[in-house]
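ARCHIVE RECORD
Type: protein–small molecule complex
Small molecule: FE2/S2 (inorganic) cluster
Source of inputs: curated submission
Record status: active
Notes field left blank by submitter.
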Amino acid sequence: MLAHLHDFDAAPSRGVTLPDGRNVFIVRVHGQISAFVNLCPHQQVPLNLPEGSFLEAGGELIQCGMHGALFLPESGECVFGPCQGCFLEPVAVSIDAEGNIHLARE
Ligand code: FES
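STRUCTURE (tokenized, with ligand):
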């Protein structure tokens, strides 16, 4: 299990480490959960904002803390910033009946 839906009540995004060591982040925007590898397509560095969030202040878009690129949470597409048109690498997750978020089986 990577996280639980309740984990996103207090803060709508969080970073997690997969069993294979990859760092990913999960966001909940408008009730939808999505996950991406925590590497910005601009310079291949983690996106973490200073306060540990992955969303801009409005909570609608993913934001890179390094140069401020903004990404759509549905697709990971960069819609503003130096890597506009590039995509975050998605991580497929599933949510079970208890609200546990797991890596989706490949
Ligand atoms: S490294 Fe993310 S916008 Fe530059």
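CURATOR ANNOTATION: The longest strand covers residues 23-29.
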